Amino acid sequence: MVTALRAVVFAGLVFLPSQRSASAVKASGDTTALEFLGFRAGARLEELNLRLRISSGSLRCRQSRADRRVSECRGALPKGKGEPRVDVWVSAIDSLAGVMTLSGKVDSAQLGNWQDTLQSRYGKVVTRVQGTQRMLQWVRRGRMIRLTWRVEAGAQVASVSLVDGRVLDNWGRTSSIGRLNKGQHSSLNPRVGPDSCPQCPPAGSPAPRSPIP
Fold first, then answer.
1. pTM value?
2. What is the spatial distance between Cα 37 and Cα 47, in angstroms, rounded to a whole number?
3. How would DSSP label each residue in 57-88?
4. Backbone CA torsion sign across 16, 121, 205, 177
5. What order of strands is seen across the sheet that includes strand 86-93?
6. Could you give the CA distance from residue 181 to residue 9 in angstroms, rounded to a whole number?
7. Among 4, 160, 170, 189, which residue carries the largest CB count within 10 Å?
8. Which of 195, 201, 198 minimizes the C-alpha distance to 91?
9. pLDDT digits (tens, 9 = 90+) for 177-197
10. Distance (Å, rounded) from C-alpha 91 to C-alpha 6?
C-alpha cells in the first residue's frame, strides 16, 4: 500500500453533487474543499463510509504492513436512475483521504453531466489530451480534482481523482517512508500532464498501478 502511496502526488478530485447530492454527507465549511458526489478531498474515512452507507454501500479497508498509518479502502455506489455504478478507491493516512478515485462506465449524457457539474463549480478549463485519455483539472490551495475519460474495450470510462496535498505533506514530514518520497508529492502541480500526478490511476481503474505491501 505504501508503494502506491509513494509517488502519490495524490491528485485530489472531488465531484460535485448531482442527483445523488440530496443524500450526500454534509461537508465541513471549508471553502477550498473539492468534492464530487458527496465525497470530499481530505475527508475522514468515517465520513466516506457514511456516504456509502446512505447508498447501501460500505467502505472496506486494510492497513499497510510497512506503515500502519496508511490504509487502502474500496467501496462502490450502486447504479441509480440516470447514474452509473461508481467504484470508490481511497488511499488514506491517519484515517484522512489523501488520494481518492471515483470511476465507472458512463454514456455521453452521464459524462457530460460530470463535466458540467465540475466546470460550473470550479470554472471552465481547457481539455488536455494525454495519449488516449482526455482530462480536466483544477487545483485549489494544495488540493486537486481531475476528471479523466477514455474509451476502453469499446466502452467509455471516466474517473474523478481527488487529492489532498496537505495530508500527503504531513505524512511526508512525519513518516520515514513519507520523507523518502516527499519530493514526489510535496507540491501539487497545476499543470495537466503526467508529471502532475504520476501515480494517479488511469480512467476506469480505481486500483493503484503497483501492489501494496
1. 0.70
2. 13
3. ---EEEE-SS-TTEEEEEEEEPPBTTB--EEE
4. negative
5. 60-63, 70-77, 86-93, 96-105, 155-164, 143-152, 133-140, 128-130
6. 10
7. 160
8. 201
9. 544 454 444 445 544 444 445
10. 11
